[in-house]
Amino acid sequence: MSGTHQIAPASSTLQVFLFSTLRLERNGENLRLPVSTDARHLLIYLLLNRQKKHSRTVLLGVFWAESSEPRARKALSQAIWYIRRDFPELLDTNHESITISSSIPIWVDIEEFKYLITDTDKTSQNLEQAVQLYRGNLLEGLYEEWLLLEREHLRELYLQTLEQVIQLKKAEAKYQEALDLSIKLAESDSLRESAHREIMRLYYLLERPKAALRQYKICQDLLENELGLEPETETRVLAEEIARKSEEELAPHLPESAPKAKTISSDRERPISLALIGRENDRAALLGHVDNLFKGYGGMILLEGSAGIGKTRLLQEVARDAEWRGAQVLWGQTQDTETSDAHALLLNALNEGLSSLRVSQFSALTEKLWLQVLKPLMPNLEKYRPNLDAAPSLEPEQERARLAEAMTTFVSNWGEITPLLLLLEDLHWADEETLRFLPALADRLRKHAVLVIGTYRGAEVRSLPVKWEQFQGLDRSALLEKKTLSGLDAASTSELIQRSLDLPQSAPTFEKRIYQETDGNPLFILEVLRTLQDEGVLTQSETGAWRTPWDDSTADYAELPLPRMVEELIARRLERLPDDSRQVLNIAAILGAEVDFPLLSALCELSTKDLLNATRDLVTRQLLIEMADGYRFSHNKTHQVTRNKMDEKLRTALHRNVILTIEQQRPDKIAALAHHATQGQLWAEAIHYHQQAAQQADSAHAYITSLSHYEQALGLVAFLDFSSSLHFDLLAGHEKTSSLLGKREEQANDLEKMQMIAEKDTEKRYRVALGKAKYLGQINQYAASQTAAKEALKLGKKLKDKEKQSAALGALGMALVWQGQTEDSLPPLQDAITL
Hints:
There is one protein chain. The chain is an alpha/beta fold. The protein has a five-stranded parallel β-sheet, with helices on both faces. It is globular, with a radius of gyration of 36 Å.
């Protein structure tokens, strides 16, 4: 079978088994092996390398290097004789070389193993067959030098394949089978911590948390006895997380839990110190949809809730559970609409998940055109496919539709590669282009392994008519479910307080007072506890017991200084910050909810040491959270209060400082520059950047975003004695975008204002005439459109500009077509082409 692969070897085929021990078989019977040890070793060597011709001289060096040449040649001849006695047709020999004959069919287990794991069309069944073939390490008990490297190579391939099969079993929700294989993996490589972690996760998924924690002890003992080491941080954190999730008491050998007096962190990238409280039913419902991912079904879910109600905390738990099951999880978050680019919420999340491997997979799975369309909007696609051509140009409205189809196809195809959980936070701040796109995506995902969960604040959405209309459209699409989170009930509020303060027993009166004032809002509850602690009202004794001044006298804790709104609590905490910390927090609030360190460093008037101390203080106080590439506010309420409590003059000055820094460090952030220039009351710069941001949005076919920037720029014109030419260009840009969006009234107003500015300027008059020709055709006034087109043609000729004449002729021809004058339309349309 040299050069070919036999999927199921015939019974007459010589079958060679090299895993574990040497065995040869034909017609279902074991064959006798050569009695000579040298002959068996030579046979093994030849079978391992049966596609090669082996020089006799080389074989002498491999097997009989210590013998004289005559004695070595004699030993080689004897070994060949023993092999031929038992297998007469197996060898082809001459005076120079020896090889395995290609004339007889042979099947070798290690060749089949390699084929099954490397075949481009490999399936889960192939990988499982490969695992079954591996009966043990290559020729156990044989320690020849020429064998050791291949043995170790095959063993590592086996372990990697076993890991792949485990993930496949998890993806099919076959957790018991995945556990059995994980135990097998750990038995094969007892110091492979990733295998022990997988066993722990699978025990937990099978609702056996005590077994998961026992596995941690097994891992810990192995590492201590064999290497004198402690488990890795990831393993220790996993054990603590399982103990927390399952509310198991930590045994002495388990890692110490994070102090329970610390409140919940909203950082997605860190372990969460408190168990999910009061959301068990919501979590179970969402996990039901996650489980459907592994059956090939996805969709979209909306999760509504007020600020601080626990939407992010619930998503953290669901995300972690999805990852344990083998899904990929991507997060998208819009912190500030005014500084974000169009489609940023969705595209930034997808871009973060694009590795070199993912891009290669998409290149094989997705039509090239869709990648060409998305390449300018996704830096990692550009990074890993730099030679991808630009997409062919289309008319603007066609470009917009093509972009929507490209994004829909891209997200859907992700589910063909791996189950995907896409979490989109704060949809109430998403740009209108994203909200316009989501209904089509929701309709498509039902048959793809992609689940999108979007969160939003209902009160904010309902206060904005345009946005509320878009959400209603999304609600009418093929949503899987729409859930609303309310405040925690009294029992759950008590549990949150007890866990936060590590109370040994309930404090019913205190807990009831907090519940009455906060309505069970988790953020409000935790801010109350932080504020009372910061102000010295809630103190902790040396023994760890918490006290207030009124514990022995109060009837209902009415004495507690509790405000009615969480914003007041946050403001009180900000007032007690040291000057350096407040300066850093103010600048962070101006930069946005997510802040990179180089920008912060450039803007703060602090030494590096003082800046680091201030950021550390803010992280300790849980006002900022440290991330991989910077900081972000622990909650957007904290961000809003910090920004709103600043003196107006200080806020304006900081926005101006930010512009200079961003221009130097991030000049591509045009939308952010426009926002900061506007807030800094630098009107000329603001108009300039809004115009650039509008043009940038146009190039991304985000016409709603473009229109918004044009409107903001036009709104600022009144603040300046402004150039009429730039004013005209802004109106023209607004008119063109309004045309694309079908906003006819705005279009007409723009053209009227452009006409007033144009006066005796021939080029501007031409642009107004051509715009009118198109507008009048759009509102079915075809005769008037024809007149305007003729005027544009006249002005184009006056300018001696063939391109302008061609555009006017095209508009004239279309006006005639709309009036049913098809024959009369041909000359101007033909002239438009020839010009």
